[in-house]
Records
---
Amino acid sequence: MKKSWLIGGFVVAVGAIVTGVAMLYSLPLDFSERAPVQPLMFSHKLHAGVDGIHCLFCHRYAAKSPVAGLPAVSFCMTCHPRFGLEIKELEAYVRDRKPIPWVRVYSLPDHVYFPHMMHIRAGLVCATCHGDVTAIEPLTRFVDLKMGWCLGCHRQKKVSIDCWTCHV
Ligand code: HEC
Ligand code: HEC
Ligand code: HEC
Ligand code: HEC
Ligand code: HEC
């Protein structure tokens, strides 16, 4: 009787360890990289969602250059000291003349060329690649940004998949 209890306990313990290790492997371990901690709480839900500010109002180069661009602190201040929208952390950056050190969520290695404007002109919307940023808070990487992801869509839309298209 005692022995079978012991064996039973042993089986349960081994099972728990195996499940634990399996879970570790299946968890998204790069989660902090996919949703980095930002120096200042900026809400797309409030700005682009509730207040309905257009994406291109802040990311103004997306339709005409390779990079989309992030707004400068001075740009934030076109609204922020006014309308009773004072934000202490923001004013500290203005006072110290320092850019806000945002941590990039989407970035490719240097050997890859990604032109935003070609994709926007081809009629793709931001959400295709970035998800609904007004609903993903904190802002988290929505796609894996691997080569296979680019190629999948290029094949589907009959866009060039020559190596030199993306590798410079
Ligand atoms: C076009 C006007 C406008 C611009 C530009 C703007 N904001 Fe705002 N921001 C608002 C409004 C309106 C609110 C208040 C939203 C509310 O409480 O409903 C707000 C709220 C905030 C808040 C407080 C959020 C909270 O949780 O209460 C922060 C922080 C903030 N903005 C940061 C920024 C930063 C950083 C920038 C520049 C990248 C910026 N804002 C640019 C209009 C603007
Ligand atoms: C009021 C200005 C403002 C508006 C409007 C706005 N953004 Fe942003 N966006 C920012 C700021 C500031 C950051 C940097 C902070 C962060 O990553 O959370 C950012 C970051 C991002 C990033 C991540 C960039 C990276 O790689 O780190 C994406 C993607 C993005 N925005 C997409 C959008 C889309 C799509 C819309 C429209 C639905 C939009 N944004 C509207 C100000 C804005
Ligand atoms: C076909 C996919 C795709 C579409 C559509 C797209 N993006 Fe991006 N976005 C990317 C990729 C890939 C990166 C990383 C680029 C890099 O590191 O060179 C990126 C990076 C960014 C960044 C951070 C770096 C930068 O370029 O300034 C912002 C902000 C951004 N996108 C905003 C937008 C907005 C706003 C739209 C819609 C107007 C949009 N994107 C549409 C794929 C896309
Ligand atoms: C959801 C679909 C989609 C995804 C994902 C996508 N692309 Fe594209 N890409 C397009 C389309 C459509 C065009 C064609 C634009 C045109 O021909 O006007 C294009 C064009 C390009 C071009 C210019 C091609 C040329 O002939 O000059 C480059 C470079 C490029 N993409 C790189 C990338 C990279 C790098 C990635 C991944 C990080 C990527 N794309 C992901 C749809 C996509
Ligand atoms: C549509 C864009 C696109 C095309 C076309 C493309 N690549 Fe890539 N490639 C990428 C992206 C994006 C990455 C970065 C992926 C990452 O960081 O995981 C990459 C990464 C790589 C890497 C590095 C892999 C690694 O693990 O770091 C090699 C090697 C490579 N590509 C070779 C090629 C060859 C060879 C071709 C032609 C047969 C090609 N690529 C065509 C987008 C492209």
Note: The chain is about 45% helix and 0% strand.
---
Amino acid sequence: MAVDLLRYAQEAAYCERILAKSGLTVVTATLAQSATPTHWTHYPEGDVYDFESGAHWYYHSHAPLEAAQREASDAAQSEEPEPSEHGHFHCFVRPDGKGGPVHHLIAVSVDSMGRLTRLFTVARHVVDDADISAEGRVALLERFDVQLDYPNYLVNRWLTAVVGLYQDEIAALIREGAERAVRDPKLDVTAQLETTLAQKVSRAPRAEC
Ligand SMILES: [Zn+2]
């Protein structure tokens, strides 16, 4: 694994370890302590936005019944939750600041234990995304760097590390998703990759010594 990717993998593992030691996961550290999570509600309240990098994210989950009904009425691939999915982090960059256009980069699905399960891209209508070329979107990946304490510093670093670790796969998903969205405008999820951090690390080529 290339040195920078190895660093991202180590950072993601470190964040998970310290969260676990604290009795938390990336999910529980994101949700309000006492709140019962509600489908479609953004967590944390007000989303997370780092004005220095322009990175922006929120976590939410979809109601399975609603997704199933939508799937039954529409052959298009809807943004339905995977059976094992608890929810997902929608990751964006606002290159011109909070008042400027917002561009979705990737959604990061996790299970109820906060473990990565899937990465996916969505059509622009799903997240009110401003138009941009696939290459322009790919170029924004390096801007996704969240250095904030809200809602939790380790969650922000974990998410930054996952996007960095999978930068090549996410770029491929963005390009594939852009092509598929043109061919089928009804798609919600335009491209996806099922993965786990353990798989990613074990399948990566060894770093040359
Ligand atoms: Zn979503």
Note: Residues 65-76 have pLDDT under 50 and may be disordered.
